[in-house]
Design goal:
Length: 463
Amino acid sequence: MNNCFYHVRFTLLFAMVMSLSGCISDQRYRTESGVCVSSHPLEECSRHTLQVFQAPEASGESYHLGFVEFDDQGQLWDRQQLREVIDEVNNLASDEDLLMVVFVHGWKHSARPADSNITSFRESLRRLSALESAVGARTGTPARKVVGIYLGWRGGSVSLPGLKELTFWERKNTAHKVGRGGATELLSRLELVQKTKRAQALADDKPNRTRFVVVGHSFGGALVFSAMSEILENGFVQTHGPDAVVSDTVGFADLVVLINPAFEASRYSTLSDMANERRRYFPSQLPVLAVMTSEDDDATGMAFPLGRWFSTLFEIERDARRFNPVTGEYEIIDQGSSNVTALGHFDPYLTHYLRANDTLEDREQASFNTSEAVQTFVGASRGWETDKSGSRIPFEGAVLERTETSAGRNPYLNIRVDGELIRDHNDIYDPRIASFIRQLILISSQSLDSDSRKNFRTNMATP
């Protein structure tokens, strides 16, 4: 009876909110087929699924951007849109190495042409293109083609300020629904492009330079985790190597990155428990998942628990007991707390702290230095290979510190980030964070055997 009363009350409240405020329609924004090439894609390509940014000056900066959109039921708005994007990526991959980045937006955002998340994603792709050009010029290797895929869904359903905050519950549910729906197909098809490139490079006895990373922000992080959690759990059990031999945990793509993800720690409990059971990982183990949450993110640190509290009023929880082989002691996991606390703010599941060691002004004023970036990668890669509880790995402008309770090379990184690096829920584009993610991608995409990894680092450091 209590559950029924709660759901009726919530339904009536939401209906009242929708009647008093503007409802954001559930629609597809990218309805034009064909590739639109422009130096001003926001104005000239606003309705195109496939876009190419080409800088007007002779800087060499360019990137491809594709949109794939989902409705409130988690289904593709149009399968032809998915086919267009995958076909374009396959066409590009047939001739060039790619740097593929999927971005999944969060609450209150969408694929609407003027959405601020799209503007920020465009700028990130432009910077990646500039970086590729600089590295190519420095090393004499062809720059990889930067390809962005923006996964759009109706992150906001009400437009009236104040009242739109009450959409927390139903938008969170929609995010998980999209993740369990067509999003897995999109991500799996893109991973197949990467696997095909890897097989082709192996057959031609050439290095595979194509990289693939998935980034989810806020409820977009919840969406990605819903799509990937079972794949990641399977990768922990079905490890890399011979059948029936426990070896290295495998992940999805080169890396999955969740920034300020808005989902409860209890959804992560299985992965955390599985990873916690192993006291050590092999030197060949690579990072699989990086969850990055700012200590100053009030949206997931303060507002999220309040929203979850209403959702869990009638759930039954207990104190779970688990053994930590690193400390040799038992830990108590409060299910009630994990059920209302966002993953990045739940202390028992933390594995790292990322601390700033310079200021944003210092990092913004510093020009890109290929030699510094290569040195950082080589040092960070070696640091990861010798990682242990309490270790510190330096990156550009930041230091990654593993907690004393987490096993070295644990491939699931749950990182609490210095507020200097990510200042709030939406400030996720600090150059030090971008550099950290780039370095993690490089570390995650190395060969698994020790000799190949050493050769990879040597090749990176050779002009």
